[in-house]
């Protein structure tokens, strides 16, 4: 019964990337003829440790799922085997999304409790989106944020070192490898080593050489010579297979012998700051790329201590967001149709707040910096510019997705407008997200009403 | 240029899931007519913090990549645009793996420096596999280990609670969602909520209901009644949308009204231990599933403090292995053909040891427990049973992949043979991996030789 060939997600099984309970509930809504319009919010209740802001990312893939949603033959066959009703499955075969989606554009800083995506649709449709939308937006936002921290650290030092994602191999599976490249680009990276991501998203791809290239020749010198014979001035030589300083000298000797300027050398181990200075003495005109366990903290240390480098290649720490590997995105029902009107809705589960009703995210600036946000009811009168944009209306895409460089530009500009205290690598201050008075009143009164019903 | 539709990996772009430098090196090997046979080892230099063992997993997907490897039209077109040579690309179009693979069977405990996979092939072929093989085996091993820790904790308490993966939404992308379900099953889980994983791997799928189901009705009672009308005795009701104890009473009332035994209730928030006892007072005959931030530490606390539950649904902590979200698998060249003979090879990069040569992993048992391993040269005479098995010979699959229940059984049996001190959740003792005297001598003499060449 196991389909080895289906170990990856393809258009044929994409609709199955969902939790069983979504389908179970959908069948219940359908069979019980209970399909009110509902509004769901995707948001982060709390930001991960040491995160004063998150950079929203992943919207385009979430919307792609909604737009291309299709329950094909293979999916229906599996669900039939698992006991779903024929009539319900016939309904799925023709299912198309007919609702509305509003969202924060990718590259926008987002804070606690603010909806990144708001879906309003018949509940049967809105329910289905939960799993994949949290999955795609949560992960890309996590990585775009990690990347933005690295770019910000370089900018704060007045530097412009390049940043290239080298993390594919250590990402959590193949989709993470590809999506990390995209999210890192949004957060301010220059490119990726992942060729599939390059092809999928038009991201610049970069690469150097591995230790295995060096080892496969009888000497490091022969390895360098052969690579330079092949790639000439584009060559980037890995100099630390045996001894970094000796490797740097060999790289110089080969460049002199061939009478060319090589593009650069790469350093992948040891005391990076000290070695970078030594290498720079030997190869003053040659770019030096650093790729050993790089994260925003190591970049800070390197730059603060006067390390000399022209680029960094973060890997594992970037793609797993090692210091904060999770962000617990939730997708909660906040309003539901009753007798033709949308009524606010919330759950009370211990220690978890959900603000009811369709909302507005307002951002107030002062002196060119973000001063505070106001999370308000959708039509509430309050200060600040609305951050949510309309993406899908009545099932039709009405949003023009910006290209990735434009999203990166948005992220750079908006991260720079986020106050430095919020952007600190450790113990950032908490950004002020105020609750609009209308939303506050609605939350309090609904809570009171529900508590009195259930105590 | 960006292909939005290609945001997921499919058979058409799978070959591109690699780092650019692999392809650059491959072209260099090809054009420079340098394609010696090489042996690469995939291993973990260090285990993650608080891990005394790792459970090997992901081999079947890694081998699937090797077996189905194909550079089709779309891939060739992209590589052409990126300046690769026509002749090299023609070579790729007909490329098939012709080498040998030996590996640790999935479900086997693995320790520092032991090869999980050993590839011997023309270097051009062997080089390509690095990225995807580390990616798939690293991630699944990480999650199988996390899962095994949870199963082990339950077993140590003499219990048999069920474990179901509820993590899809918080996994790092869609592939992680699917592969986590598989790896968790290997590590001792009973099933997953991920429908795509169920279909792909024949894993049992489970689900309950979400808070949104409850909220979409005018009362919790109406929500329960409608669900029970639809699913009868299979119903598992979520009782903590408003108030857990009140929810449990409502569930009981609905079951009495309908005169059926419901399958269970689920608890997703609050003080789990205390609430589980209260709920058990109300619904003594009903299974209670616990799904709030579950990991092995929370399971231990729950069981130690007398919590009453019949199953756990770990999510985020499982699929991101939150307490140890990375394992730095490496894929290193350990031997290379020279004048027709395989010569051991190693790099010396600061602080990183690689043992040269094709190897043997021997496991020595004493009194039914693992006593020590010996990492030795392949043909070295030493104690213990060989752990590596032959998977591919001369490009042909010679290994019969066990089905998932058999792999799970192997993992359970072998984890139970791993000494308790190695299995501790915190600060485990380090398992004894000895270096065989032949390998030790070879390592020392090769190191000395390389150091004298490069100082």
Summarize the structure in short:
The structure is a homodimer of 455-residue chains. With 455 residues, the first copy, chain A, is α/β, with parallel strands linked by helices.
Keywords summarizing the entry:
nicotinate phosphoribosyltransferase; 40% helix; homodimer; TIM Barrel; six-stranded parallel sheet; alpha/beta; seven-stranded antiparallel sheet
Describe this structure in words.
The structure is a homodimer of 455-residue chains. Chain A is α/β, with parallel strands linked by helices. Among the domains of chain A are: 4-142 and 327-355 and 384-432, nicotinate phosphoribosyltransferase; 208-292, Aldolase class I (TIM Barrel). The first copy, chain A, contains 17 helices and 19 strands. Chain A has helices at 20-31, 59-68, 73-81, 86-93, 123-128, 130-156, 173-186, 195-201, 211-215, 220-231, 244-258, 272-282, 296-304, 316-319, 404-417, 420-423, 437-453, and strands at 37-44, 54-55, 100-103, 109-110, 117-122, 162-165, 191-192, 236-238, 264-267, 287-290, 311-312, 329-338, 341-344, 359-366, 369-377, 385-386, 389-393, 396-397, 433-435. Chain A has a 7-stranded antiparallel beta sheet with strand order 13-12-1-5-3-17-18. In chain A, strands 7-6-11-10-9-8 form a 6-stranded parallel beta sheet. Chain A has a 4-stranded mixed beta sheet with strand order 16-14-15-19. In chain A, helix 11 (244-258) links the parallel strand 8 and strand 9 (264-267). In chain A, helix 2 (59-68) runs antiparallel to helix 6 and helix 6 crosses helix 7 (173-186). Chain A is globular and about 85 Å long. Chain A starts with 19 loop residues before the first helix and ends with a helix. Chains A and B meet through helix 1, helix 2, helix 3, helix 6 and helix 7 of A and helix 1, helix 2, helix 3, helix 6 and helix 7 of B.
């Amino acid at each position: 019964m196991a389909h080895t060939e289906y170990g990856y997600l393809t258009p044929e099984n994409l609709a199955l990337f969902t939790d069983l309970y979504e389908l179970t509930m959908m069948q219940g809504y359908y069979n019980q003829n209970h399909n009110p319009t509902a509004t769901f919010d995707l948001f982060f209740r709390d930001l991960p440790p040491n995160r004063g802001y998150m950079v929203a990312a992943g919207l385009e893939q979430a919307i792609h799922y909604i737009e291309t949603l299709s329950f094909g033959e293979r999916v229906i066959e599996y669900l039939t085997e698992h006991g779903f009703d024929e009539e319900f499955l016939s309904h799925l075969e023709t299912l198309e999304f007919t609702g509305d989606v509003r969202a924060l554009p990718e590259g926008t800083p987002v804070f606690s409790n603010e909806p990144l995506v708001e879906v309003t649709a018949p509940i049967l449709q809105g329910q289905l989106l939960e799993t994949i939308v949290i999955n795609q937006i949560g992960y890309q936002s996590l990585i775009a944020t990690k990347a933005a921290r690295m770019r910000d650290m370089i900018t704060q030092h007045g530097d412009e070192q390049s940043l290239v994602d080298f993390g594919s191999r250590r990402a959590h599976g193949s989709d993470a490898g590809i999506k990390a490249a995209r999210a890192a680009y949004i957060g301010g990276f220059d490119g990726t080593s992942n060729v599939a991501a390059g092809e999928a998203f038009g991201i610049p791809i970069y690469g150097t050489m591995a230790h295995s290239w060096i080892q496969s020749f009888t000497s490091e010198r022969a390895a360098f010579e052969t690579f330079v014979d092949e790639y000439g001035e584009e060559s980037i030589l890995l100099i630390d297979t045996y001894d970094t300083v000796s490797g740097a000298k060999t790289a110089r000797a080969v460049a002199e012998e061939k009478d060319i300027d090589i593009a650069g050398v790469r350093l992948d181990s040891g005391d990076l700051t000290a070695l970078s200075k030594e290498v720079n003495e030997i190869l003053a005109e040659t770019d030096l790329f650093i790729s050993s366990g790089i994260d925003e903290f190591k970049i800070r240390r390197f730059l603060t201590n006067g390390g000399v480098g022209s680029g960094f290649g973060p890997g594992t720490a970037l793609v797993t967001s090692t210091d904060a590997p999770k962000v617990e995105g939730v997708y909660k029902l906040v309003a539901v149709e009753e007798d033709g009107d949308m009524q606010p809705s919330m759950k009370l589960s211990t220690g978890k707040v959900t603000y009811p009703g369709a909302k507005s995210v307002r951002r107030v600036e002062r002196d060119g910096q973000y001063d505070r946000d106001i999370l308000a009811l959708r039509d509430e009168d309050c200060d600040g510019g609305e951050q949510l944009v309309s993406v899908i209306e009545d099932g039709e895409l009405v949003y023009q997705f910006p290209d990735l460089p434009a999203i990166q530009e948005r992220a750079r500009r908006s991260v720079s407008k986020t106050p430095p205290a919020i952007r600190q690598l450790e113990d950032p201050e908490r950004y002020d997200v105020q609750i609009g008075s209308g939303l506050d009143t609605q939350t309090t009164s609904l809570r009171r009403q529900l508590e009195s019903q259930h105590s």
